[in-house]
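Example: Sarcosine oxidase subunit delta.
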Amino acid sequence: MRIRCPYCGERDNGEFSYRGDAAPRLSGGDADTPEAVHDAVYLRDNPAGLIDELWFHAAGCRAWLVVTRDTSSHAIAAVVPARAVARARQEGDAA
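Written out as structure tokens, the predicted fold is:
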């Protein structure tokens, strides 16, 4: 599988470390209960189809990326810097 880093260009996935689902896990008061923390850490969906994932370009620019990947075929639909995704979420929360 090849990942197109926005900073370094197309690279082999061996240069990256997979972190998992990029969806926010805990927010606001959810973090206050042990049950919520347990669910966020140990319970995961395993959907077939497009999913946003966090990847770290460890052997390159060392940037965190959000990779939109089809879990059925491993085809990559988009790669964006995680910082841009976080900013967009913050702006959406502020509106």
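Residues 2-94 form a domain with the Folate-binding fold fold (CATH 3.30.2270.10).
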